[in-house]
Amino acid sequence: MSESTELEGRRFPAPEQLAAQANVGPDAYERAAQDRLGFWAEAADRLSWAQKWDEVLDWSNPPFAKWFVGGKLNVAYNCVDRHVEAGHGEQVAYHWEGEPGDTRTITYAQLKDDVCKAANALLELGVQAGDRVAIYMPMIPEAVVAMLACARIGAVHMVVFGGFSADALASRITDSGAVLVVTSDGGYRRGSPSALKPAVDDAVARTESVRNVLVVRRTKQDVEWSEGRDLWWHDVVDRQSTEHTPEAFDAEHPLYIMYTSGTTASPKGILHTSGGYLTQVAFTHWASFDLKADTDVFWTSADIGWVTGHSYIVYGPLANRATSIMYEGTPETPHRGRWFELIEKYKVTIMYTAPTVIRTFMKWGEDIPAGFDLSSLRLLGSVGEPINPEAWLWYHKNIGGGRCPIVDTWWQTETGAHMINPLPGVTALKPGSAQTPFPGISAKVVDDEGNELGDDSSGLLVLTEPWPSMLRTIWGDDDRYVDTYWSRFGKEVYFAGDGAKKDADGDIWLLGRVDDVMNVSGHRISTTEVESSLVAHPTVAEAAVVGASDPTTGQGIVAFVILRGNAEDSGDELVQQLRTHVAKDIGPIAKPRQIMVVQELPKTRSGKIMRRLLRDIAENRELGDVTTLTDSSVMNLIKDKLPASS
Ligand code: WT7
């Protein structure tokens, strides 16, 4: 019997002590079921509003939602000032640790001063409410300060993950119309400084909207300088006043844009607004992780370049006055125990990370975590992809010491905050399942026609009621917003793009994407984006990309390419060239695990590439049904080309 079969049916009830003191008990589900909008209004009441809302939700023009209509607040005030005013200025907001081991301790009082100075600097640079500001930074405190400074003055931040290419940055700057880029000379990655400024120089040269580039000095590496355009953070920000009066903005004032991959080659600018977003990230952070602001030390291991960082390193924890860890580097530098060392050092109580990291730790072996004192931990979280029961159990035993509940949280860039997850003081946990919609969230599993399925069946995941932290649109493209998310089952049903199963108890299991989106180490990458990068290479005529299951990264990118007539197949050398090309074009996370040069691609009579068959090959399976192919011998041609081992 395999470990996963053995696990089936096993439940992990909420630890008694945790349940007795939990922030949220079983009544939350009843309360939300009776009065969903009243439930969210109570959650919003946990924030400070300069002006109370008139109406909780305006859904008169679906799918365009307005939450807390008429309400006004300042997001940065809610994250920083109000805690200082309440006498918590000396509490640590972030224990920051750089990869080389340098540290900074930032209290709420210091954070307030830093944010005010940065806000004043942005104003001096002519940034106004509504303007877009690109942030392209390593994991250093100034990244958070820059985000909050934008929020404070009503500017819309657009953070681009530092691992993305100049090209990716340029297209996001152009699409958003950013007037300022905040960046740094570089950051530390796997033991050495890695430059960021050259990519900014390259990107800005190809765009028209950027007036200034504000550069934080982190690694002290040499940078090119464009006089008049480029400014050092320490020259401009350090001399500013620590006084800045926050202005209250409308609840629906745009807070940020975050680009994410969809089914086409161009990423979508997901727009989040202020009041509803902050309400749900703060409430879920407090409820899903049972956050106790006075005693917990909270750590989300994500990068702020992803939505997980926005919602659970920055906005949720700060709105709740949490003490967080912020770490610059990767888990293996300078050694494979680095994370456990940080847990021990800062006595982390709540750890939130991704299954791909857990599986990497599993590969490295349980002796590594066993060498550290992890007894401070009381709760664990997971996000990014389904956590397989084996990884769940390993996490539970070797990191959680068998005593910490694991909260598996399903959500998306688009949803802004947790949507489906157990509650740690309530739910008896089932390894591998995200289980239940969060109180106040309506999730269903439906068939292709949109009919709700009963227990014990699989279909598509939909959300049938609007929620406070939902995306409001795709930046500059309302039609694409409607088409992508709200047209498959009508304009009041959100199509998530994930397959899901309901088990006999009605618990939800996420089954992965049903569209052309891959999930590699918890990062979303579109097959079309990688395909268009490949065909942009002079040797490639046609490309098809699939996500093949991978024991560590969840999925790995496998590409099939047809070369142009005049291109020479130099074998491994060309393959390496193409892999590097994609990494450079999009970013290292998009580098294909494997590229196979083939003569033909399997297509239907209407010319659509049959990725299903390519996936069969990439995963080394018996081929599925080939009868709809124009030419079924194509598959034999492809198989003949494969190296014997794969
Ligand atoms: C996609 C969203 C949510 C922040 C990080 C990723 C997958 C995410 C889970 C989970 C199963 C999950 C889904 C989703 N996903 N969390 N706990 N269980 N699948 O955000 O880049 O917007 O990706 O990640 O497929 O649609 P994202």
From TrEMBL:
InterPro entries: Ac_CoA_lig (IPR011904), ACAS_N (IPR032387), AMP-bd_C (IPR025110), AMP-bd_C_sf (IPR045851), AMP-dep_synth/lig_dom (IPR000873), ANL_N_sf (IPR042099). Keywords: Acetylation, ATP-binding, Ligase, Magnesium, Metal-binding, Nucleotide-binding. Coiled coil: none annotated. The modification N6-acetyllysine is found at residue 608. It comes from the Bacteria. Its EC number is 6.2.1.1. The gene is acsA. Belongs to the ATP-dependent AMP-binding enzyme family. It catalyses: acetate + ATP + CoA = acetyl-CoA + AMP + diphosphate. ATP binds at residues 384-386, 408-413, 498, 513, 524. The lineage of its organism: Bacteria, Bacillati, Actinomycetota, Actinomycetes, Geodermatophilales. PANTHER family: ACETYL-COENZYME A SYNTHETASE (PTHR24095), ACETYL-COENZYME A SYNTHETASE 1 (PTHR24095:SF14). GO terms for biological process: acetyl-CoA biosynthetic process from acetate. This is Acetyl-coenzyme A synthetase. It is an enzyme of class 6 (ligase).
